[in-house]
Each structure stands twice: as C-alpha cells, then as structure tokens.
Amino acid sequence: MAVYTTLSAADLTALIAEYDVGELVSAKGIAEGVSNSNWIVETTTGRFILTMYEARVAVEDLPFFLGLLDHLSAKGSPVPRTIHDRDGAAFRLVRDKAVALIEFLPGVSVDIPNAAQARAVGAALGGIHLDAADFPGERANTMALPQWHKLFADCGEDGLRKIDPALPDLVGSELAHLSAKWPQDLPRSVIHADLFPDNVLLLGNLVCGLIDFYFACTDITAYDLAVTHSAWCFAKDGSFRPDISEALVAGYMARRPLSPEEWHALPLLARGAALRFVATRAYDWLHTPADALVTRKDPMDFARRLSFYATEGDKAFPARPT
Fold this sequence. Notes:
Blueprint: H1 9-16, E1 24-29, E2 36-43, E3 47-53, H2 62-75, E4 82-83, E5 92-94, E6 97-103, H3 115-131, H4 145-163, H5 167-181, E7 188-191, E8 200-203, E9 206-210, E10 217-220, H6 221-232, H7 242-255, H8 260-287, H9 299-316
Antiparallel strand pairs: 1-2, 2-3, 3-6, 4-6, 5-6, 7-10, 8-9
Helix pairs in contact: 3-6, 3-7, 4-5, 4-8, 5-8, 6-8, 8-9
C-alpha cells in the first residue's frame, strides 16, 4: 500500500521556488489520493497540482507519463501539462521521492453521467488516441493479461472463494478463454487504460480534463474504449445503461472510426477490461490491512460486468455504426 507523505510549509515554499510560478500562497492536501500524495497549490500566478509519487509509480516511468501529458496538451487534448522547473526538468526529488507540478484544470467528476457527457468523453478518448499517434515514447502495459494471471494466483482459489463462492470458477474459465482468444493483430497506440469517471473533469457536458495517466501504456487501441465502456456504462445497481453505451461509442467513432475487426473484438476486449479490474480489486480486497485508510472496492461489481459482457455482449455492442 502507498505510504503517504507530509511536507512542511518550509518544504513546500522551497520546492515551489524552484519553479517560475510565483510565490507560494497556500497548499492543501487532497484526501482522495490513493496511489500518490497530492496537494492543490495556490501561488501568486495561479493554481497547480503537486504530486509526490509513492510506491506504485516507478520513477523510471515518469519521463513517459509526464512527456505524454506535455505532448497531448500541446496537441490540444484536454490534458494537464507538466510544469517544468527552472532547469527544465519535469520532476524533482524530495526526500528520495519524485515530485511533479501539474497544471490545474477546472471541472468536476460525475457519479451518474448523462448521454451528452458520455458522448463527450468518447470523443475526448478518440482524440487522445489520434493526438498520441506521433508520441515517441512507449511503455509496456504492466496490467495486461500476464499480470491478471499473477494477481489471481496471488489471491489463490481459497481467497477468491472468500470473496464469493462462484468467483474461482468465473476467473478460471475467463482466464482460459481470454488467453486463447486475445487478439494479436489489432491497431495499437498509447492508451490511458484507466479512464474511470473520477479521471474525467467536466463542466456541464464539456470535457475539461482527462487526468491520472499513471497506467498509460502502449497496447490495443480499442481495448482503451473497452476499459472506458466497462467503467462508464453501468448504473450504481449494476444494471447496464444502453443510452450511455450508445453515446460513448458514438462519440468515440466520431473522432476515430473503428475498423470492422476492432468492432468485432469489442465484446472480448470488454471481458478482458472487466477481468483486469476484478483482478486488481480482488488482490486489494485480500491484501489491504484492516486498519488501512483506503476503502476497498468490491471486485464482484466488475465480476458482474464481466458476466454481462460474456453472455450479452451483443447488447453492449449491437451493430457496428456506419
């Protein structure tokens, strides 16, 4: 689990002085941070996000993550740019931990999106896939199919059974099916890979920011749409929302049309997306200490979405739009 860091006023003042952003006025910790320590920083020139990277983000990956933000922002995607220090560096080391200053973007995350918002999110996702086409960096997906196998193995059948008696059989059958059928020849690009509603900032129906690119990687482009679909298209009670599905996909297709092969693969990719989140949530469910401040997320939420895609994928993706 992440070990969260505190910085004194003197630490923060000295750190902000390394950037050409004016003088520090205030800094407030963001309690919602799960993997990193975050502050909203006010200076005499504006507002920024200060992030200190904890155990889950490798320092060697930061040039990719932060360079991607700069690249997409320069292309016009709604992505926060990295604020470089006076020496031009994208991040610095404080107490042996990397820190970065990021542009603050307006907007709020929504719990229950409407169709117009979903369409805008789909269009924004298609936009970053296009804008990232000439980004020179590459990063392997560290949460791809081999890692799902490892996470479930670390949970063990007994552990999965403690979560739900039916979970071991579901996991076993899906791992076998996806391992045999996972596509190898679909278009690939840089993808976000974690575009949940809390990683999108909206003002009304306008997407103001796509944030938290710390799972970004090079993988199947349509898989990113499947991840986003699994994260956005289900109600709080677990029921499928066809209006959100239709709008999300239409928005994406308006920016980046899918090939017939990509469209045909979407139900399978969505099963994989759902299983990926079952894997990480099951692992965290079993390995999070009882006194941890982090709230565990129920892996069965995505297990039910997985079952929906496996049995009723035609309802999620009924016909390829023209």
